[in-house]
């Protein structure tokens, strides 16, 4: 057990997660659906296998996957498909709200509902225990934080001219973006269910001599496969409807290499959050491990807002708006820990 080392590893993952959308700004010509699925091929199909092959003992990965219960693998894929709707709309929320506002709302809800949904589905009366009441209170505070941040976004929308909005976020759309971010946050909570479904796979990985730091890597193969299926169907639909399937073959070789490089970089940064989360959470003592997901979400929210400042997404907003935003971020971060305390 090494709590400080565990938190630092989770922080590394947060930097990747909060930064993954930034390389998309270097993509040229391609439509959103084209560069989104390009990053997905790398993040959800290629990298999970690469990391599993590197960090699982040589020759053991295929044995682990073969011995893993079919039910665990299917449920991991199923929850991955559900999470895929969250991942897909998460990308859309960043498209319409920007890195700071989009990630804050979606990740806050992801942390809250990832904890709230399991006992609700199990039929537990959350108001019958102190833990349940704390969980509900934490979710209520999450919603309050999101309302505050949404209010900051509304103030920003009123204060900035259309030119300033488009300069910071090309397709800024507050109402549409918030609705999508709420849906993304709720559905993204299914990733936690995928981890739970993959516990038998993790145990088999440990039995085959896998370092506990990397025990989640085999499960990620199945969870992310499910997510890829959802995103592939939607992006191909958009490619056909918008006739953007030509994006992949009509650009010059230089532009194609540029776009592949930056979308693959985005995919790598995105995947690192779960790789380092798995490593970091394995180092947290039992009493602290329950807060691992909250630590990841809280750091993601904080770092994404730092990127929002760097990318000048709030340039032109008044001091009052920035103060409201900061208050909302603090409330949101605190709420994730109250939820997990419950």
The average pLDDT value, as a whole number, equals 81
Quaternary state of this entry equals single chain
Helix content: over 70%
Main sheet makeup: none
Counting DSSP H or I runs of 4 or more residues, the number of helices is 16
Secondary-structure-based class equals mainly alpha
Strand tally: 0
* Distance from first to last alpha carbon: 23 Å
Write down the overall geometry: globular
In N-to-C order, the SSE pattern is: HHHHHHHHHHHHHHHH
- Given as residue ranges, the uncertain stretches (5+ residues, pLDDT < 50) are none
Total domains, how many?
Answer: 1
Strand % is: under 5%
Alpha-carbon Rg, integer: 20 Å
State the gist of this model:
This protein has 342 residues and is mainly alpha-helical.
Written overview of the protein:
The chain is mostly helical and 342 residues long. It has one domain. 80% of the residues lie in helices and 0% in strands. It has helices at 3-19, 32-55, 61-67, 70-97, 99-121, 130-159, 162-168, 174-188, 190-197, 199-207, 217-241, 247-250, 253-283, 286-289, 292-310, 319-341. The longest helix has 31 residues, at 253-283. The two termini are 23 Å apart. The relative contact order is 0.23.
